[in-house]
């Protein structure tokens, strides 16, 4: 039986910072409304870089940290809801950019759960014993997905990318997981409908911006996701008190407050960085993980236990517990 471990982490965000005050110049909003309801104070917005450009920077950083070349990689899994194109995949673009010519590469779409779903998938590839090294990246340019005339969503999101190098290990690191979807509630968070538009169909092409029923998503997060996280901990070999950190999707600081209470852990164990980046969907957890490592909170020496949990469009939600 082969085991997988996260050996490197990295993140990259576009240089341009857009504050809540900047947004108040172009739409009917204000810093007080945004920060009191969400915690968000600014976000990074890409001027020219695409989702694959951001992901490529993360891939280069991961390889530099590990001292490896692209040729040593077996796979690249890229979680995104804002791909450069449907075909080729954004992962294939990254593969070409870093010369990972032996790797297979594909995108995975699970919205804000994308990184957790991708990491779980990658762990199975390594556990199969057939693959030794791969990149798992969450990368988004949500600035192209939001309707900039809709203040109720435009203020929430940002662009960025984060990722990990996953490698074989002699010890078991992935302790528990729970992956979930509920397509029957898909309408509360949607983006990118493509209707039928052939001369033989009865539908118009219906491309759309991101739409969200904020209240429904808020309730989903604090009810279903908190319950699922608690259950995953209960079914795992560890106790909640054994967790050093819980890295949850960075949508809203109030959601994190309520989740900490419901799960029964100290809020100090739930780091947050949506203040600086907004909600970066599939990129939010790996960006947070990378920052925690930079700040020395997480050491990547196998001595700590962390929980990662993503939740969002689909609906989807997923939790992983691992030693790191
Ligand atoms: N600036 C100023 N006023 C605003 C803005 C804005 N940017 N957006 C909405 N408003 C107004 C509304 O028009 C409304 O005004 P009205 O009462 O006169 O009609 C008022 O503020 C209240 O609007 P609500 O939508 O009821 O505000 P609410 O308190 O529910 O907060 C929010 C909205 C922050 C989106 C909240 O529902 C939330 O956090 N939801 C969680 C969803 C989330 O974070 N999603 C992120 C993506 S999904 C994911 O990642 C899981």
UniProtKB/TrEMBL annotation:
Recorded metabolic or biological pathway in which this protein acts: Lipid metabolism; fatty acid biosynthesis
Enzyme superclass (EC): transferase
Annotated segments matching region ACP-binding: 250-254
GO CC terms, sorted: cytoplasm
Domain Beta-ketoacyl-[acyl-carrier-protein] synthase III N-terminal: 106-183
CDD domains reported for this sequence: KAS_III
Enzyme Commission number(s) from the entry: 2.3.1.180
Tagged with keyword Acyltransferase: yes
Active site residues according to the UniProt entry: 112, 249, 279
Catalytic reactions on record: malonyl-[ACP] + acetyl-CoA + H(+) = 3-oxobutanoyl-[ACP] + CO2 + CoA
Cited InterPro entries: ACP_syn_III_C (IPR013747), ACP_syn_III_N (IPR013751), FabH (IPR004655), Thiolase-like (IPR016039)
Keywords: Acyltransferase, Cytoplasm, Fatty acid biosynthesis, Fatty acid metabolism, Lipid biosynthesis, Lipid metabolism, Multifunctional enzyme, Transferase
Segments crossing the lipid bilayer: none
Compartments, record wording: Cytoplasm
Listed GO MF terms: 3-oxoacyl-[acyl-carrier-protein] synthase activity; beta-ketoacyl-acyl-carrier-protein synthase III activity
Pfam families: ACP_syn_III, ACP_syn_III_C
Location of the Beta-ketoacyl-[acyl-carrier-protein] synthase III C-terminal domain: 234-323
Gene3D superfamilies: 3.40.47.10
Main location: cytoplasm
Subunit record text: Homodimer.
Domain note: The last Arg residue of the ACP-binding site is essential for the weak association between ACP/AcpP and FabH.
Function: Catalyzes the condensation reaction of fatty acid synthesis by the addition to an acyl acceptor of two carbons from malonyl-ACP. Catalyzes the first condensation reaction which initiates fatty acid synthesis and may therefore play a role in governing the total rate of fatty acid production. Possesses both acetoacetyl-ACP synthase and acetyl transacylase activities. Its substrate specificity determines the biosynthesis of branched-chain and/or straight-chain of fatty acids.
Identification of the protein by name: Beta-ketoacyl-[acyl-carrier-protein] synthase III
Organism: Streptococcus mitis
